[in-house]
Design a protein that fits this description.
The complex is a heterodimer of chains A (198) and B (136). Helices cover 9% and strands 43% of the residues of chain A. With 198 residues, chain A is mainly beta. Chain A folds into two domains: 118 residues, Nucleic acid-binding proteins (OB fold (Dihydrolipoamide Acetyltransferase, E2P)); 76 residues, OB fold (Dihydrolipoamide Acetyltransferase, E2P). In chain A, the strands form two sheets. Chain A has a five-stranded mixed barrel. Chain B has a single domain, classed as RlpA-like domain (Barwin-like endoglucanases). Chain B has two helices and eight strands, in the order E-E-H-E-E-E-E-E-H-E. In chain B, the strands form two sheets. In chain B, strands 1-7-2-4-3-8 form a six-stranded mixed beta barrel. In chain B, strands 5-6 form a two-stranded antiparallel sheet. In chain B, strand 3 and strand 4 form a beta hairpin. Classes of the chains: A mainly beta (198), B mainly beta (136).
Chain lengths: 198, 136
């Protein structure tokens, strides 16, 4: 835990300009770098250390994000921030217009020093309407979603078995959960993982 | 009461971007992605008739909007407290599904957390994790 807390202190310090480029934390995978410290948030209440919305401006290492509820967020990216955009990636892959969820540490000035940022991530429950070459058409809440299979990245999990790249067992009409990355302002996503029941 | 062990995932609700934009406030009308909330398969008669965890052999108590649960991720040891804000997951579509991290496993989907809650105990990019759910 001490290591965890120290890391968050480093992030906060880095966000304040003291340690950017010198934390030695490097870029961590989201799985290893997600919210590291238990936060006392009342069940049902909003988490001040979490933000969501779409990026309206990128200024240096700061993301200006317009929340879906119109609240504005300033999110600081540090050397220790893990960034996911279909896969772990780097800050230069983040663009204006992207949607995001971010978790980190809210600083006294209101800035969120980000531990983790998940860019364009979606987790959809849908039915398979059709299957094409490297493509799934999904029915999601009455809308059609085009899900692109990305060779070398997309994986399928069939009823809890280990993830494999073979999508051939996916069938029209089947219910699936699709974790992926949205293509902003379209009805298209890229597939990270498809979960299919037996 | 013993904790209920199974699988957890996450879902968006309230105001949202992208394909989540149609999510709405959930069955309770209060659901927001940024709040510590969750969906529960037995939140009402109507909800239970859709999710049917009993068909997977899972017995889940009737608990309604605002009820508090505490979910632990055995992969990280982290725990989050949330309130019921929606109906779900649809357990019966995933009967027997098993998810593990190391030696910790969960079978059958028993809870969906909001992104704020899920990301407090696991990375959103994991999508699905074993969990245990308790009331205290």
């Amino acid at each position: 835990m001490k290591q965890t807390l120290d890391r968050r202190r480093l992030l906060a310090t880095a966000a304040l300009g003291g340690l950017v480029g010198a934390t030695g934390l490097g870029s961590l995978a989201p799985e290893a770098a997600f919210a590291a410290e238990a936060v006392t948030v009342e069940p049902g209440a909003p988490d001040p250390n979490f933000a969501e919305g779409r990026i309206s401006k990128i200024s240096g290492s700061m993301l200006l994000v317009t929340g879906s509820d119109a609240v504005l967020h300033s999110i600081r990216i540090t050397d220790g921030t893990s960034i996911w955009k279909l896969h772990p990636t780097t800050f230069d892959q983040v663009a204006v217009g992207d949607g995001l969820y971010a978790r980190g540490l809210r600083l006294p000035d209101g800035t969120l020093a980000a531990d983790s940022v998940w860019v364009n991530i979606v987790n959809l429950h849908a039915h398979i309407a059709s299957v094409g070459r490297n493509m799934l058409h999904l029915d999601h809440k009455g809308q059609r979603i085009v899900a692109h299979v990305v060779p070398g990245r997309s994986a399928a999990v069939y009823n809890g078995t280990p993830a494999i790249s073979d999508m051939s067992l996916l069938r029209v009409g089947r219910h699936v959960q699709v974790l992926g990355a949205w293509h902003p302002d379209t009805n298209e996503i890229s597939v990270a993982t498809v979960y299919a029941a037996a | 009461m013993a904790a209920l062990v199974g699988e957890m995932s996450w879902f968006c609700c309230g105001s949202a971007w992208g394909p989540c934009g149609t999510a709405g406030g959930g069955a309770c009308g209060t659901c927001k992605s940024g709040n510590y909330q969750h969906a529960w398969p037995n939140a009402s008669d109507a909800c239970f008739s859709i999710t049917r965890p009993d068909t997977c052999g899972v017995s889940m108590s009737r608990r309604t909007c605002g009820f508090r649960h505490y979910t632990t991720n055995p992969c990280s040891g982290k725990r989050v407290g949330t309130t019921i804000a929606d109906c779900g997951p649809q357990t019966d579509l995933w009967c027997g599904e098993r998810t593990c991290c190391g030696a910790s496993c969960g079978t059958n989907r028993i809870i969906d957390l909001t992104p704020a809650a899920y990301s407090a105990i696991a990375s959103l990019s994991t999508g699905l994790r074993p969990c245990s759910v308790d009331t205290v």
